[in-house]
Amino acid sequence: MNTILQACLWMSGAIVSFTVMAIAGRAISLELDTFEIMMYRSAIGVVVVLSMARVFGTHKDIAPTRLGLHFLRNISHFAGQNLWFFAITVIPLAQVFALEFTSPIWVLLLSPLVLSERLTANRVLAAIVGFIGILIVTRPDPGSLNMGQVAAALAAIGFAGSAVFTRLLTRTDKITNILFWLTAMQLVFGVICAGTDGQIALPQFTSLPWVVLVSLTGLFAHYCLTTALSLAPATVVIPIDFTRLPIVAFVGMFLYDESLDRYVFLGAALIFLANYTNIWLESRRKTVTKT
Question: Going by C-beta distance under 8 Å and a sequence separation of 6 or more, which residues neighbour residue 2?
């Protein structure tokens, strides 16, 4: 099997996992708040990461290195994931996923500040076109803009911050170490935030499968995405990832009676165009530089 086909199969796993995680998150949102969801998800994640590290012999990679950078990475992801879980409960899933896809555009803008990467003309243009896509999806006005849309847009910024700090970490840390501190630190964050009111709800027995599903699908989705990017260029992988939008839109229609909004698809198309064009231009620039 060639690597492109392998990448497509791994991305199929990521798409299914992200979609199932959204469904599972909604299923337990009436019983647990977002902080509690993240706390239980992280607790299960710690067990899974340590178990897999022991099985594959990578547990020696876990070390208390660059904890400050791990903290910045994980506080960004924790904030983004909490906002994402909140957004999927109050606005249509298609809107959440469309706004989530703006994350690469925020990465473009944050990279010069965090990674000292140069802000090129095509990156600026991608950010502008992507922002226009955001405006089309949300169509902000005093009567239509709501907290769910704001939360989804802010979640994308949180994910972008997590991405750029992860880039820094991958220069020195192994994946097992990154995943361990991801789950361990976010478990602490979850306990603190969930316990601020003096009460932490326990999931009912019937909800436990959904809680486990949220944790496992989240871990598996990111593993699939990372594996796909290791097998094929981003210009191949990213367009596949965007098929999540129509899939989740139909899931929302059939499971939750959410209407299919043409503006969501139009805005998402512009966001996709901005992301894809920038990746394609960056790939060509690197190819020319090498030759």
Answer: none
> pLDDT value at position 188?
95
Q: Let me know: does 110 contact 148? Beta carbons within 8 Å.
A: no
Model confidence pLDDT, tens digit, residues 259-291: 878 888 888 888 888 877 877 777 676 666 665
Burial classification of residue 281, based on how many CB atoms lie within 10 Å of its CB (0-12 exposed, 13-18 middle, 19 or more buried): middle
Give the residue among 288, 283, 200 at the shortest CA–CA distance from 235.
283
Q: What is the DSSP letter of 64?
A: -
> Where are any strands of DSSP class E within the chain?
none
107-145 burial: b if 16+ Cβ within 10 Å, else e: bbbbbeebeeeeeeebbeebbebbeebbebbbeeeeeee
The SS3 assignment for 3 reads: helix
Task: List CB contacts of 270: < 8 A, sequence separation 6 or more.
Answer: 129, 130, 132, 133, 136
The CA-based angle 34-243-141, given to 5 degrees, is 60
Predicted pLDDT of residue 209: 92
Query: What pLDDT digit, counting tens, does each position of 44-101 carry?
Result: 999 999 999 999 998 899 999 899 999 999 999 999 999 999 999 999 998 898 888 8
Q: What is the DSSP string of 117-178?
A: ----HHHHHHHHHHHHHHHHHH---TTT--HHHHHHHHHHHHHHHHHHHHHHHHTTS-HHHH
Paired tokens of 28: 């337990």
Tokens of 16: 């299914």
For 113-141, write each residue's pLDDT tens digit: 777 777 777 778 877 888 888 888 877 66
Per DSSP, the three-state class of 59 is: helix
Q: Specify whether the CB–CB gap between 128 and 108 falls below 8 A.
A: no
Phi/psi region, residue 92 (left: phi>0; alpha: psi -120 to 50; beta: rest), is beta
DSSP state of 206: G
Cα-Cα end-to-end distance for the chain: 29
